[in-house]
Structure formats: structure tokens, C-alpha cells
Specification:
Number of strands: 0
CATH class: Mainly Alpha
Radius of gyration: 21 Å
CATH topology: Hydantoin permease
Number of domains: 1
Shape: globular
Helix content: over 70%
Oligomer: single chain
Strand content: under 5%
Length: 445
């Protein structure tokens, strides 16, 4: 095998993995999912499921990737030769393909807003109507989605060190700092207290099996687990790093950014008279209105949209990387060509999702738009099912000693914490996923 590229530092890996995890999952999707599913109760379930189910599976993916130093398909082939476990990696690649196809549509929306912010056309606009005008314009959504995919391709084809890691090191901290500033402004708006209560005071009466399923899907979506993205990222990780500590760093940053996103959005929603259940357009409608309430708001809006675009791109990098890594197989000379071909195919598959709020708005798949159907397929079926089989693979297929030795690398040894994690990956995670699924389809309700 030719030399396998690696991250240059632990910090670079954590920031890149956190960028993949945070992305639109925390900033775009979490606020609207929480807004349409009870606010604080959804947030509470999300935290619990991230810690008890999401983080253990994230560690499991790190174990698979770092141990094998292989892509998502060959990693399973190496650990379980002459079995069908490699189909788990192939499923991950397939769902990653679908995920980026609709994810790039949202990236395109951000680009449309960014262009308008530079030209001054966002100032004092009717943001609800503006958002609807953008997403229903076929030429604009397709062109902006195409540009987003091209940016993603240009970075990913540069590889791990020169492309993904270099971009993440500088812009992830900037995004975090800016969100803190924005959250402070949001909670100081008059009437923001109702938004804080919506985010922080759970109402258990609105909880249902579907709420738990959606919270579980959100935990997996924001951590990028279940489709072997983190198997691929961890394959570039040095044997000297502590993967458990890295995993909890990523999970902790993920919860923190979701909390900050909630602090930015919901106090402003209630203070400015919006509805929290607006759906996918929530961030695009509320945040520009928040900036209107700030001194030099137009400048801050441009900075924020730029950082939001970066957060979106960091997730797109990781999703495209899993597809490219499987096809490149360490043959670096093929990387550029394969990245372009993969990216363009993903763009074409995503065109119906881009048009699903305009010319294809009447097309429904099981009562959902094309965009929402693709999102539901990945977030609430692909990710949980993939996470279920990953927990079984690490918990039952891999030798316990191999897993323990892998987790011990870069540490002074593992003891009780390993036993707790191993129990979780064998019993808690898979049982929780099954119970949530059965409850969501009405069998246990």
C-alpha cells in the first residue's frame, strides 16, 4: 500500500472532525428541528442521546478507522475478511452521496444570501418572503448549488492536510467566537426571555416516540456517525493519539455549538415575533432580522454568512471525502479526477432536491417533498440503522482485546471507562436504537 495521508496534529483532526459534525447539523438543522419538536424537550433528548448513544458510536468509528488506516469499505474488509460486513461501508458511501446531494442545496441558499448581503439587498427585507423567493427560483438554486459543490471539490481534491485540515484550523475558532457574540446580542433583545424558556424549560407533555426518533437522528446527524464518515477521518489519525478523548472533544463541541445556536435563534424568534416552527428556513429568516437590531449589522451579517458557509463546507468536505477515499484507494494521482467526477454526480442527483420548493413542489414522496424525503431517509433511517450495525460490529464481531488495545493507544491505559463504553456499545446503543424505532412506528406506544 502507498503511504496513507495523516492529519498533522491532534488539534487539526479534532477541528476537522468537529467541523464535519457541527456544520449545518448544529447551526441550520438543530434550531428548526428543536423549533418544530417542543424546544427544550428535544434539546434534552438530544443531549442524552448524544452522550449515551452518539458518542460511544463515534468512538467505535474511530476505532475501526484508526486501527485499519483504510477507507470505509476496506476497513471492514480488513477487520472481517470474507464476510459481508463491507456492505456496511458501501451503505455509508451511498447515504453520504444522498446526504451531500441535498446538503449542497442548503449550502447554495447560504451563497445566495451572501451575495445579497454584499450588494445590500438583505437590509430591512421581508425575510420570510425573501427566503421563499430564493428557494423557488430554479435558476438561482441550481447555480448556487453548483458553485457550492465546486468549492467543496476544490478543497477535497487538495487532500487532508493541504485542503481540509488547513481550512478547519483557522475558521472553526472564528465561527465559535462569533456565535458567542451573536448569542449575547440575541438574549439581550427585549422579549427574549420567552425564547430562553422555550429552549431550556422542557415540556414533557409534547414528547412522543417520533420526538425521540428525531432527536436520535439529530444526534447522529450532527456527529456524522452511522455512515462511516468518521471511519474515514480516523483512518488519517496517528497511532499516538487518544481517540476516546478526541471523540468526547468532538461531542462536547457539538453540544456546545447546538446550545449556542439555540441561544442565538430562539430568544430572537420570540423577541422579534417569529414562529419557532417555521422549518428549514428558520435560520435564514430569523438571523438577518437579528442583525438588523445590531449596530453595524450589515457588516456582521456578511461575516456570519461567510462563517456559516465555512461551517457548511466543513461538513461537505467530510461527506465527499468518504466517497472519494473509497474510490481513490491511496492512489493519490487519481484523487483530482475522482473528486471532480464524484462531485458532479452528487450535484446532478441533488438537482431535484434543489427544485423541490419550486417547479417540483407538487412532487411528494410519502407525503414529503423531495428535499424532505432525502433528509428523512438519511437522518432517520440511514444514520440510525448504520449506527446500529456499527455498534454490533465493534461490540460483537471485533475481538474485545483488539478494541481495548486500540483505545489504549495514546493513553496510560484503559480500565473502568473502557468497561462502561464497551457495555454501552454492546447493549445500551443498539437496544436504544431498536426501542426508539419500535416506539416511533407505534409498536411500543
Amino acid at each position: 500500500m502507498k503511504n496513507h495521508e495523516q492529519w498533522t496534529s491532534k488539534l487539526g483532526f479534532i477541528l476537522a472532525a468537529a467541523g464535519s459534525a457541527i456544520g449545518l447539523g448544529a447551526i441550520w438543522k438543530f434550531p428548526y428541528m428543536a423549533g418544530t419538536n417542543g424546544g427544550a424537550i428535544f434539546f434534552l433528548l438530544f443531549i442524552i442521546l448524544t452522550i449515551l448513544v452518539g458518542a460511544p458510536i463515534l468512538i467505535a468509528e474511530f476505532v475501526i478507522g484508526r486501527n485499519t488506516q483504510r477507507d470505509a469499505v476496506r476497513a471492514y474488509r480488513k477487520l472481517a475478511p470474507q464476510t459481508n460486513w463491507h456492505f456496511l461501508g458501501l451503505a455509508g458511501v451511498t447515504f453520504s452521496f444522498i446526504l451531500l446531494s441535498f446538503y449542497s442545496v442548503v449550502g447554495g441558499w447560504i451563497l445566495s444570501y451572501l451575495v445579497r448581503s454584499f450588494t445590500g439587498r438583505l437590509a430591512n427585507a421581508d425575510y420570510g418572503n425573501l427566503f421563499n423567493d430564493i428557494i423557488s427560483n430554479p435558476a438561482e438554486v441550481i447555480i448556487s448549488q453548483f458553485i457550492f459543490i465546486v468549492i467543496t471539490i476544490l478543497v477535497v481534491k487538495g487532500g487532508v492536510q493541504k485542503g481540509i485540515e488547513r481550512a478547519s484550523k483557522y475558521l472553526m475558532p472564528a465561527l465559535f467566537i462569533f456565535f458567542i457574540v451573536l448569542a449575547i446580542r440575541s438574549v439581550t433583545l427585549e422579549g427574549s426571555a420567552a425564547g430562553l424558556e422555550f429552549l431550556l424549560k422542557p415540556d414533557f407533555s409534547v414528547m412522543s416516540g417520533e420526538t425521540v426518533l428525531l432527536a436520535l437522528g439529530q444526534a447522529f446527524f450532527t456527529l456524522s456517525v452511522g455512515i462511516s464518515v468518521m471511519v474515514t477521518y480516523a483512518s488519517y489519525l496517528s497511532k499516538s493519539e487518544n481517540i476516546a478523548k478526541s471523540a468526547f472533544s468532538v461531542a462536547g463541541l457539538n453540544i456546545l455549538i447546538c446550545f449556542l445556536a439555540g441561544l442565538v435563534i430562539f430568544p430572537a424568534v420570540f423577541a422579534l415575533g417569529f414562529e419557532p416552527g417555521q422549518g428549514p428556513g428558520l435560520v435564514f429568516v430569523v438571523l438577518p432580522a437579528v442583525f438588523n437590531e445590531m449596530a453595524f449589522g450589515s457588516i456582521f451579517l456578511i461575516i456570519f454568512l461567510f462563517l456559516l458557509l465555512f461551517a457548511t463546507l466543513t461538513s461537505a468536505f467530510s461527506i465527499l471525502e468518504i466517497v472519494v477515499a473509497v474510490l481513490v484507494k491511496d492512489e493519490k494521482e487519481k484523487r483530482g479526477k475522482i473528486t471532480w467526477i464524484s462531485g458532479m454526480l452528487i450535484f446532478l442527483v441533488g438537482v431535484p432536491s434543489a427544485l423541490s420548493f419550486g417547479v417540483l413542489s407538487d412532487v411528494q414522496i410519502f407525503g414529503r417533498s423531495i428535499f424532505d424525503a432525502a433528509d428523512f431517509l438519511v437522518s432517520n433511517i440511514g444514520l440510525p440503522v448504520g449506527a446500529f450495525f456499527i455498534s454490533l460490529f465493534v461490540g460483537y464481531r471485533l475481538p474485545r482485546q483488539l478494541v481495548k488495545e486500540e483505545l489504549a493507544l495514546g493513553t496510560n491505559g484503559v480500565g473502568l471507562l473502557f468497561d462502561i463504553w464497551y457495555f454501552s456499545i454492546r447493549y445500551v446503543a443498539p437496544i436504544a436504537i431498536v426501542i426508539v424505532f419500535l416506539n416511533s412506528i407505534g409498536i411500543l406506544s
